[in-house]
Amino acid sequence: MIKICLYLKETPDKLSQQKILELSRVPAMGEFIELDLNVYRVFLVCHNPNKSEYQASVAVLKTEWDNCEPLIDRKQRL
Questions:
Q1: pLDDT of 67
Q2: At 72, phi and psi to the nearest 5?
Q3: In terms of Cα–Cα distance, which of 32, 17, 27 is closest to 56?
Q4: Burial level of 6, CB count in 10 A (0-12/13-18/19+)?
Q5: Rounded CA gap, 49 and 40, in Å?
Q6: How far apart are CA 78 and CA 73, in angstroms?
């Protein structure tokens, strides 16, 4: 497991909330992740964060399911 620092943004205008998680891998930019019954899209990944407690910093923005469903479907068809 890899420990990451996840920065969650509910809207582009709000400050992000920090959350430390253990995942099997670091999410990629543009990837959708589900967390606490919400969908988020990764918009920034830093693999060499300043903190030694985690291996990566990942920033995500909350995305409405209706906005990302066509993108997920298209990615699965590729």
A1: 61
A2: -65, -45
A3: 27
A4: buried
A5: 21
A6: 9
- 40-75 pLDDT, tens digit per residue, is 989 999 887 677 788 899 999 998 877 666 665 555
Residue 77 has pLDDT above 50, yes or no: no
pTM of this structure: 0.76
Alpha helices, DSSP H, located in 1-78? 65-77
Sign of CA dihedral 1, 65, 67, 76: positive
What are the CA-CA distances from residue 69 to residues 23, 24, 56, 63, 72 (Å)? 23, 24, 27, 10, 5
Q: Is the dihedral of CA 40, 46, 47, 51 positive or negative?
A: negative
Residue with tokens 């990302």: 68
